[in-house]
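We store chain and fold; example below:
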Amino acid sequence: MYIKAFIPYRGYYSSPFARWQGSLQNENSIELGAKTARRWLAAKDLNPKIFEYFIIGKTVGQLHTFYAAPWAAALMGATEIPGCHIPQACSTSTTCINQAAVGIETGLYENAFCLMTDRMSNSPHTIWPNPMGSGGMVIAENWAMDNFAKDPWGGVAMIQTAENVVKMVGGITKEDCDAVTYRRYEQYQDALANDREFQKRYMFSVEYKKGKKETALLQEDEGVTPTTREGLARLKPAIEGGVHSFGAQTYPADGNCGIILSTREKARELSADSSIEIQVASYGFARGPKAHISIPMIPAARMAMEKAGIGIKDVKAIKTHNPFTINDIYIAKKLNIEVMNFNNYGSPLIYGHPQGPTTGRVIIEMIEELVILGGGYGLFTGCAAGDTAAALVVKVS
């Protein structure tokens, strides 16, 4: 269990998420994330030079990725600090937060900033040299589409890893998936109530290039699909014999988020309300059987809870990364909880999946839900890269 790592209240933001090939499709995610973080720090009257270390989480290559961490830190205004770059597919943010917490816990630094950013749109087309191949023909890879289509270890497309779990568990129907999907859409609507009151607790606009000489602000999520029970029922499974339609799985997106990690004393100084304390309690990780996306989420969650010294009955808010509805159905079965009662206020199934910042936004939403509930433990667990997972427990006092 961690005892020294804290997140200042409101010491975090998430940009809106934009469906891929939308408003953010032409932005370099490193530049966009750093400039958004700089605008957010300025709005909070925080000097970037307070940070001693910087962590960037990003999974899709961008121009000048080689310099990702020091370049982003400099663009953010923290020109004198080093940093590192962490890519861990969908659980990138979870691991970035943990890495920063480890540094706080061990006394390496007192203030760190985690910036998680990605652009799934227009992902790179990489050419790999292949001098021993026939005629020296190169190997070509599209970073996003080719890796969605096949896990090199599991040997199947990402959606097949979800359907493999369905087959393993047994008895799960398309109707079950549709019901949970619609419930997740309802929960997202709660975040939009009263002129987006919940989202405005943490969401910060992103400024993007609308043309050569024109900029615009994206202030709310873009591209969320209106969802009805009847519409879901009409959709056919995406692959033959499966239970997930295109409505019961997420879509790629673009966006960024930032989170400050500090010692207890520094967190109080930086907090929007020093009476609210947010402690990073523990981290969990796991790997499951090949090409079974949901399975490792459970041992990762149990590891995080064990390290925090709690059980599932002690948890007041649960959030997940749910690129496929089976993730939530499987978790509910294994943890003996009601599937319709967690992921309040939103989840990636509905508002999209930019990879790097995905779980960062989810964890931020979990913190705000705990504040509304008057404090308590929150558990996040989410899959990453086919058959791995990471989890995080936070405590809000």
